[in-house]
Structure formats: C-alpha cells, structure tokens
UniProtKB/TrEMBL annotation, chain A:
Family: Belongs to the YciI family.
SUPFAM superfamilies given in the database record: Dimeric alpha+beta barrel
InterPro entries (alphabetical): Dimeric_a/b-barrel, YCII
Name of this chain's protein: YCII-related domain-containing protein
From TrEMBL, chain B:
Span of domain RNA polymerase sigma factor 70 region 4 type: 98-148
Entry annotated with the keyword Transcription regulation: yes
Domain DUF6596: 161-251
Xref: SUPFAM superfamilies: Sigma2 domain of RNA polymerase sigma factors, Sigma3 and sigma4 domains of RNA polymerase sigma factors
Entry superkingdom: Bacteria
Gene Ontology MF: a single term: sigma factor activity
N-terminal signal peptide: none
UniProt cross-references to PANTHER family, sorted A to Z: BLL6612 PROTEIN, BLL6612 PROTEIN-RELATED
Domain RNA polymerase sigma-70 region positions: 6-69
UniProt keyword Ion transport, yes or no: no
GO biological process, one term: DNA-templated transcription initiation
Record-stated family: Belongs to the sigma-70 factor family. ECF subfamily.
Descriptive protein name: RNA polymerase subunit sigma-24
Length: 135, 382
C-alpha cells in the first residue's frame, strides 16, 4: 500500500470543463456536489483506502525568515497571484493506477446542471520512510 | 571482627539503657541495631572504647525510635480527635481547583486543557481527540500549564469571571470525537453552580442549557447548517429549555445583571417563541442594549443590528450596521441578510458569496454559498 495526496485547487490548475463558479450553481447542485464527495470518502473508508480529508480556506501567505531579530517576511494574503489549495484527501491504495482511478472518479463530482465538473485534481505520492531491514 | 568481644559487651550495654529508663524490649531492639552498625563500621575503624561506642549508638537508636513512636501516636490521636471533613470543605477544594485552572497566567487554550484534565477528569487522549491535536502535543500543553501554576497559592478568592470564560470556551468547542465538550461544560458549570452562589454562574448555566437544547435542530441530516428561523422547533429539548429558563429567572430576580444572564435572556426569548415569526424582537433588542452596556463588544453590536432589522425593518438594521467596523467577523453575512430582506437581491448575492469566502468553518461556508446560489438562481429566472 502506498499513500497518495489528492489536491483540489482554488486556482492555478487548468480550467475545469464545466467551469462555473459555485455561487452560480443552484443550492441543490451544491448539496449534490458535497454529498458526492462525502459518499466517495465514506466508500473509501469501507474499502480501507481512506486516510484523511480536509478543506482549506482560500486565504494563505508565503512566509520566510528575514534574519536575526526581525519579524518573518510574508507576501500578504494576495490570493489573486497564487496557486491555492482548496482541500485534500489522502488515500492509501495498492497502486498508482488505483490512485489515478480514484482521482478521476472524484473529479467527476457533479457541478452546475448536475453534470460532472471535470476539474483537474493533483495526485502526489507520499515519500515513505525507508523499510526496516533485519537480517 | 571480634564476635566474642561483642557478645560479652552486649549485656552491659543493655543494662545501661535500662538503667537510664528505657523499657526492656525497646532497649534490646536498640542494642541489636547498634551491634549491626558495629559489624558494619568497626572493621574500617575500630573504636578505642568498644563499650562506650555501643552505649552511645544504642542510646541514640532508642531515642530515635521513641521519638518516631511518639510522633506516630500524636498523629493517630490527632486523626481521632479532629472533626471529620464536612461536605462544605470538599466543595471549597473543588472551587479552588476551578480558580487554579483558570489562572490569569495561563493562555486560554492551556486553561481549557487544564480544566478538562483536573476538574473534568478527562484523559489527555480524550482532550487531544476533542481538539484534534496529537496526544503528545496535548500532554505537553497540560504539563506546561501545570508548571505555570505549580507555585500559585490561594490567599484570596479567585476571579469567577475568568472561570466562566474558560467554561464558555469549552462549551463553544462543541462536539467532536468521543467527548461531547458542550455536555462536559454543562456538567462542570452545574458543579460550579452547586459550589458557589453567584448569579452569573447561574446565567452561564442557563445560557448553555438553552443553546444545547436547540442543538438537534441546528444541523440538517447531511451536516449542513439550519438557520434559527428554519429550524424544526419540535426537535428542541423542551425540558432543558424549561430548566434553563427557571435557573435564569431565579438569577435575574437577584438583580445583579451580568453578560451571561443577558445572553441567556436573549436565548430564552428565542427558545420561548413557538414559531420564528412570533419571536419578541423588540424585547431582544432591549436585552442587546443591556449587553452592549455591560460588555461594549462590537460582536454584540453586530448581533444587535440583526435584531434591530427584525424589530424595526431592514433599513433600520442597515443603519445600525453602518456604524460598525466592516472587518468584524460575520459583518458581510449580516449585511447580505439585511440587503436581501430589503429586496436588493443582487447586492445580497454578491455579499453572501464574499461572506462564504471569509467563513471559517465548512458548514457555515456551504450555507453561505447556498444562500448566494439561491439568490443568483432567483435573479437568473427573472
């Protein structure tokens, strides 16, 4: 088993096919979208492939050390220029192929008009600790 | 080591002790101890006067044993003679623990963790899970808090207001994991109310009971937020509401108003209305005026603007809102609501979407996004 991080982006990713901002959807479409993601996570829990999922707020800042005795430097919450992560799901699956299959399924969550959004998701493998070898 | 010499000296040493007034059994024990000591130290440094050495050591042993025995007897007699601790004393101890755990030198999160640990009796693991942090992190937080208050002595009564603030923080964390912090906060506040006679403690307990009673109606089956006006009032716990209101009325009758009693009064007016339309908004605005006088909090004035909007119409609400700082949390959501009530749906939809982006929890964000979507859909269909 290997862990993969599925990342949703606020911006920075290529545009989704069904690219309509969420506040232009109907309330029922929003509920259906949220329900789809919850069902997806619940199903992965039953298969033992779910690890964690969290949503992130849109604001974020880059922060850097700026030398002894000085406050850290930040670029401020200027979200317009940034690639921002909207949330993640961590899965623990048998193969890369399975991770891609699940990410594809999550990307098919319904959006405006009840049609899949086809949004781009990022799939990142976790670097794992080296195996313990005892001889 | 000359054992023959030791054996020959023993009776003489024993006799000296008995002559000096030691009872025989005690004297013999003391001499035996002295002999053991002699076997241990003589090989390294034999005494010039072996009998004198044994008498000195045995007599000291006898005195030590007698003193320890006398002290033990005094303690035993003391336990018999002192009155048993009564229930009042035990309650006072708990009270000091509340004050200690809410000590001003602690950060709010440390005070909360220490209160749950020391007063609530929760395990570190339970507290960690309730706050979604690793157990090791919470263990560190708690031991740091314990170190911070380790030297604190209570020679003056603690500050009840600080304790109440800590308990209210616990309550507002709500439910997560295997511990229901709201229920825990109610339990601790009940215990505090039993130990101390203070109208604000009663006010906080009433407030918690009434809020908690409405919890089942606040969330939809899918976890979404249900606003007060749309809640199924049949799902509210009427027994809890009745208890809260009775506690509040008894507290208000004592005429020492404080912020928790005023907040509880507002919650009681909401809980008392059979439908949202029958809410007594005029009285609620009056309580907000009291609350603003007591706390001077901008959050209170923001809530007051909503109540004014209901009592005197959305224009009056917007006027009250205009006097406030627009960077307040939920300011945008309140502005959206009042604009919608005023019929300006396009402005309201934009503000709801903006408020959704600023929301700090998922249920609230989804709720605000749905509000924006509802108005946008309405807008498109016209």
């Amino acid at each position: 088993m290997a862990k993969y991080l599925l990342l949703k982006h606020y911006r920075g990713a290529p545009a989704a096919v069904n690219d309509v901002p969420m506040d232009q959807w109907s309330p029922e479409e929003i509920s259906a979208h949220v329900q789809y993601m919850n069902d997806f996570a619940a199903r992965l829990e039953t298969t033992g492939e779910f690890v964690d999922g969290q949503a992130l707020a849109p604001g974020g800042a880059w922060v850097r050390y700026d030398g002894e005795g000085r406050p850290p430097v930040t670029d401020g919450p200027f979200a317009e220029t940034k690639d921002l992560i909207a949330g993640w799901m961590i899965i623990d699956v048998d193969s890369y192929e399975r991770a891609v299959e699940l990410a594809g399924e999550l990307s098919a969550a319904p959006g405006a008009g009840g049609k899949p959004i086809h949004e781009w998701l990022e799939v990142r493998p976790f670097l794992s600790a080296p195996p313990t070898i005892t001889e | 080591m000359d054992e023959v010499l030791l054996r020959s000296l023993t009776p003489g040493v024993l006799a000296v002790l008995v002559r000096r007034g030691a009872d025989f059994a005690a004297a013999e024990d003391a001499v035996q101890d002295a002999l053991v000591e002699a076997v241990r130290v003589w090989p390294a440094g034999p005494p010039r006067d072996p009998k004198g050495w044994l008498v000195t050591v045995a007599w000291r042993r006898f005195l030590d044993a007698t003193r320890a025995d006398a002290a033990r007897r005094r303690r035993e007699v003391g336990v018999e003679e002192e009155p048993a601790p009564g229930p009042a004393a035990a309650a006072d101890d708990t009270l000091q623990l509340y004050f200690l755990c809410a000590h001003p030198s602690l950060s709010p999160s440390s005070a909360v963790a220490l209160t749950l640990r020391a007063v609530g009796g929760l395990t570190t693991r339970q507290i960690a899970r309730a706050y979604l942090v690793p157990e090791a992190t919470m263990a560190q937080r708690i031991s740091r808090a314990k170190r911070t208050v380790s030297g604190v002595r209570f020679d003056r009564p603690g500050n009840v207001a600080t304790v109440l603030r800590v308990l209210y923080l616990v309550f507002n964390e709500g439910y997560s994991g295997d511990v229901d912090l709201s229920a825990e906060a109610i339990r601790l506040t009940r215990q505090l109310a039993a130990a101390i006679d203070h109208p604000e403690v009663a006010g906080l307990l009433a407030l918690m009971l009434i809020h908690h009673a409405r919890r089942a109606g606040r969330t939809a089956p899918d976890g979404g937020l249900v606003p007060l006006a749309e809640q199924d009032r049949g799902r509210w716990d009427t027994a809890s509401i009745a208890e809260g209101i009775a506690i509040l009325q008894a507290a208000l009758a004592r005429d020492r108003l404080g912020e928790f009693q005023a907040q509880a009064a507002i919650a009681a007016l909401h809980a008392d209305a059979p439908t949202a339309e029958e809410t007594d908004w005029v009285q609620i605005v009056e309580w907000y005026d009291e609350l603003a006088r007591l706390t001077d909090s901008p959050v209170v004035r923001l809530n007051r603007a909503v109540a004014v909007g209901e009592a005197d119409g959305p224009r009056a609400g917007l006027a009250a809102l205009a006097a406030l700082d627009d960077s307040l949390p939920r300011y945008t959501a309140v502005a959206a609501y009042l604009h919608e009530r005023d019929g300006d749906l396009a402005t309201a939809a934009g503000l709801y979407a903006e408020a959704a982006r600023k929301a700090s929890d998922l249920a609230e964000r989804d709720h605000l996004t749905r509000q924006a979507a509802r108005l946008n859909a309405h807008h498109r269909s016209r």
